[in-house]
# Entry
Amino acid sequence: MTANLAPTLSSLPTDPWRLVETRWDADANLLRETLFALGNGHIGTRGSHDEVWLGEAEASMEGTYVNGFYDTEAIRYPENAYGFARTNEFMLNLPNAKGVEITVDGERFNLANGTILSYERSLDFREGVLVRTVEWQSSSGRRVSIVSRRLVSLSRSAILAQSVAVTPLDTDATVEFVATINSMVRGVEESFDPRLGSGASSRALSTVETAVSPGRSVLVSRTSNSDLTLRIETLAGVNGESDNAWLEEGGVLAQTFRTSAKAGETVTLEKLTAIVTSRDAPASELAIRSAEALDGARAGGFEGLAAEQRARLAAFWEKADIDIEGDDALAQGLHFNLYHLFQSIGRDGRTNIAAKGLTGEGYEGHSFWDTEIYILPVFLRTMPELARSVLRHRVSYLDKARARARDMGHSRGALYPWRTITGEECSAYFPAGSAQYHINADIAFAIKQYVEATGDVSLLVEGAAELVFETARIWADLAHLVGGSYHIDEVTGPDEYTALVNNNFYTNVMAKTHLAFAVEVAELMEREEPAMLKELSAKLDLASSELGHWTDISDRLRLPYDEGRGIHAQDDTFLARKVWDFAGTPAENHPLLLYYHPLVIYRHQVCKQADVLLALFLRGDMFSKAVKRRDFDYYEAITTHDSSLSTCIHSIIAAEIGLHERAYEFFMHTARMDIDNTHGNTFHGVHTAAMGGTWMSVVHGFAGLRAIKGELHFKPSLPKSWNSYRFRLVDHGRTLEVAVSAAGAEFRLIEGEAIRLFYCGEPVDLSAEEPVRRVALPKTFDKKPFKAVVFDLDGVITDTARFHHLAWKRLADTLGIGFDDELAESLKGIDRRMSLQMILDKGGVTLEPAEFDRLADMKNVWYKELIGTMTRDDLLPGALNTLEAVRAAGLKVGLASVSQNAPAILERLGISHMFDTVVDARLLTRGKPDPEIFLKAAAQLGVDPVDCLGVEDAVAGVASIKGAGMAALGIGKPSVLTEADSVIPSLDDFVLADYLV
# Structure
């Protein structure tokens, strides 16, 4: 099903580096509070205005949060069962410490009162300061200018800072500021929408201490059930002389400053807030911690903090920026997304990144698998130290994961929770939550990526190896033999519209990867940390026999595949279900989960998000391009994209299989998801997974990056609407820059040791001596309404090269001529007599004609003996599927091989019936690169050569095709087959739609 690619466009101006609001819009306030939110990974605060909200209560959600600061409540089940999650953890909305009220000559400023003469609010992603500038006229006619600035310090985790400047414009005035801490906040209420949360049944924070003194306010609170303590302390003051009063009333701590200002004179309130909790330090030390934080912030004041903010963001953008020339709306979306990710991710090894970051209470502040699969890849390649911190967070909850595994009936191993804050399972609806066992493999996969990208084994030593081993045991416990393959039953994959199935494809692919990686970790530690491995093996009772069992499961784990359709099945029964009636579903009935009972959805073929396609992306090295194309075509048609995690993965796969326009459409839907509010729920918080997916869509999608066994592989493309794009990434301490334009791709080593990366399968070496390499982009094939496809045999349909090699080597040995790989390679595509002459020339041997003929015939006898052993198993990957696809499309099929043994080989392979003609090599007067053989094939097929596509693996063969006037598809390396119109590694990557109109 096509994604909604006509989003609700934002009314905000398009600016690549800023979010700008040019008028106050009460109706958009709730959404803008999310968009203008600030954070630093520890503190997050919504972009509400300084003064109290006077509009409709539902149009504002005041919010300040601390990452990992939570309370708990028992989950209430009217119908209970053993092993259900018992306790919900939920992020708390903290007392509001950013309130500042202003009165001018006794008239109170508020956007809802008086007259707004001019207004702008902006957030520059390079500055990290929220700035609001208002010219306001009171009901009595007084005009004032008010400039409010706010930041959450990226350098000082406990600090929120504000500067509010008031300038009377037409007359002298008395200005009064009231700086408050308001403990009377409301949290999210219970909602029918499961994406928002259940809400707490009672007040979660109780005030245990307050203090007010000149310029200083302190509020200490404690949670009801999690036994956590919160301390909020503010320091406030006004430049110049002022009267200061303070009071505490009705749960509000207030500091009042009154001063006189002449017309045109500016008075400024600075307010510094420290927020610390007992998750960071013992409760008894919080007063000292907050005092130290405030002292440090006060030293430089707001301007000093703003300078620190600019420096910290400059360092971030130097590493993380994606520079796109030619699309400002997209650049804005990218910068907005990356900025919010940086604001939200935990940095201390104790905290994660929630699905909504620190911008709202959607999903109750829980983190999911989104972290490992969608967000960590961004930081792994830009700021790997942050990726490491989040993985340390996962490691710290290993004991809780062990306990959860026991609840779920596993006597050994560890099972991580589906949704959580501190490691407890908080999923009250287990079919779409706790049953998603793939969370174990997702975490292990992130560890695998981290180790391969950094070479940092210390993370394994510090607990990650233990995590990988313990979580792998769950797969061994679940997997059971059915016939010759292992099965995993009753789990839920990423697609939450399909639950409790056997052999979910994604789950099994990731479990297969997890088990193999666990064995690799054991082998790595045996080499580099043998003492540690011995100690850990003793602790876990981990024996080599268990590792062997993991390998066996990994090798034989079932990956459902439908031979008739040529696609992977999402699970054992998915393809047997009825397809959802998309045409009969009203547009307003999306997302489906809000309008249909889960059982109704589960009974159909309908996907909420990428499932099979996600596996194809993460483990793309396991699957051919052809099957990826078939899988994409099938599953995209039945996917609603109701999940924000979906379109980015579809974009990446579409780019990989050559559907570049579709890739761009999906990408745009992802990139501006929150700014344009396309899912209609951004007011409850941003979509951090989609934000990570935006970065992945550029780097893994358009640039084609794949990390395979620690090596970086690129296959870039350039979207039509872009002039160029550029980004940096980190690998093993090196910094690389990748730039793509119509002129080609440029790879630059910015910092670090020499590296070999791969471009379209071919090596590119960068070093300090040669830091830059430029290459042309892959050719764009000019698709045509072809009527026939003419194939070469050897190296295309099957590989007889090894037989030729053995036979020619045997002959060369009899003549005492050295036969090396270089000579063998030069014989590809060359007929027998010419090949023999090339061997003789190398050895400086001259033969009489009769002896020459005898040796040529002898080589053929030896060769025939070898090919007599061939079976269908000797078809090259993708060959059979390619022939079937070409015939199914109604195209004629020809074979143009210089081998006189071609008909016999086709018989041995069992595919003779699939060819309409086979050129008789004995009738040729000239071999390749002469075009004769391809011209004969076209004539025998009755098709004009210009209507034929020729497929060859050798330079001579490509020259033959081009000489015949045909389009040439090369099988091999682009750097070798330079004359081909397109080149693919093998027929495993052949997709007929790439060439046929």
Summary: The chain is about 35% helix and 20% strand. The first helix runs from residue 29 to 35.
